[in-house]
Write a structure and sequence with these properties.
By secondary structure, the chain is mainly alpha-helical. It has one domain (2-300): Orthogonal Bundle (Farnesyl Diphosphate Synthase), CATH 1.10.600. The chain is built from 13 helices and no strands. It has helices at 2-11, 16-32, 38-65, 79-82, 87-111, 118-137, 151-172, 177-200, 202-207, 213-217, 219-244, 257-269, 277-300. The protein is globular. The termini are far apart. 47% of the residues are buried.
Length: 301
């Protein structure tokens, strides 16, 4: 039982709220177009869940191997660095969840064959394989891209554009501007979560030669960057609502705006990176709540 609890902790379940936000937001757009499919939503959630856990395990392994996870690190203790899970065992778990992601993704694409054509199946399968590679190569390998400041771009693309637009396309068979706007919004929110993580770890990352975007720009500009990300996310959501507006019920997601306002107020006043650890959960859960209310507004419209 103790070993199971260690693995569950390594899965980092608190990050899964953000993953589900992607699918829920995409399903909201599909509802607007009258093409919502429950089976697609469930399979998409399963695939995203496997990818997120794969990413978390890869980060645990990669940061331990590269020496970024050490006694100076702030935040939850990592499994490999602490010795509770060996590096070979973590690599095997990464292989398992890589295969689970692939199998679930193929099942998802197969279930949508009535909506997408064969060419679309092949293209989306290639995108899925790229998602798996991206989840692993963020911190694993000789030159992990997360150590060179490309993490923010990757998160915006895969946890925003690809995730949301893919969810919509698998249900509607098309890509329209509303889907892109919602995808960009979720991408900015997701990047904001990563930025909080990188701001929290900026001192240790710099000492460990992990060159994140915050390490490049500095803590002060990281705070300003956070405000820009949150502002752009809300602008994209509001723009999508104005574009598809039919009833005031579509605006119920604005109920979460105070959460982000208080978050930005905290960030603006915070001058100690260690104090930002709790803000990861605030942005992640706030994003999920916004996605759920956005989807509910689409269903009620």
């Amino acid at each position: 039982m103790q070993k199971i609890s260690v693995w569950i902790e390594a899965f980092r379940l608190r990050t899964l709220a953000l993953s589900f936000s992607i699918i829920v937001a995409g399903c909201g757009v599909a509802m607007q177009e009258g093409c919502f499919d429950l089976r697609t939503m469930l399979l998409a959630m399963l695939t995203t869940l496997c990818l997120q856990i794969l990413s978390n395990l890869s980060n645990d392994y990669g940061d331990a191997v590269h020496g970024v996870d050490n006694d100076d690190r702030i935040g939850p203790q990592r499994a490999v660095q602490s010795g509770r899970i060996t590096a070979p065992a973590m690599k095997r778990a990464m292989l398992v969840f890589g295969l689970l992601s692939l199998a679930s993704g193929i099942g998802l694409l197969a279930s949508a064959l009535g909506v997408i054509r064969t060419g679309g199946f092949v293209f989306l399968l290639a995108v899925g394989l790229l998602c798996i590679a991206s989840a692993i190569c963020y911190t694993v390998g000789r030159r992990p891209y997360g150590y060179r400041g490309w993490g923010d771009f990757s998160v915006f693309v895969f946890f925003g554009l690809v995730g949301v637009v893919g969810t919509v396309t698998l249900q509607t068979g098309t890509i329209e501007l509303p889907a892109v706007l919602v995808a960009a919004a979720i991408g900015f929110f997701s990047t904001a979560v990563l930025n909080m993580n990188n701001m929290r770890d900026v001192d240790n990352d710099r000492a460990s030669c992990k060159t994140t975007l915050v390490v490049r720009m500095g803590f002060e500009w990281g705070r300003r960057y956070q405000m820009v990300l949150i502002a752009l996310a809300w602008l994209c959501l509001v723009a999508e609502t104005l574009l598809t507006f039919s009833t005031a019920l579509q605006l119920i997601y604005l109920a979460t705006l105070p959460i982000f306002a208080m978050h930005l107020r905290f960030v603006a006043r915070c001058d100690r990176p260690a104090l930002l650890d709790g803000q990861l959960r605030v942005v992640s859960v706030g994003t999920l709540a916004t996605s759920v209310l956005f989807c509910a507004g689409c269903a009620l419209a």
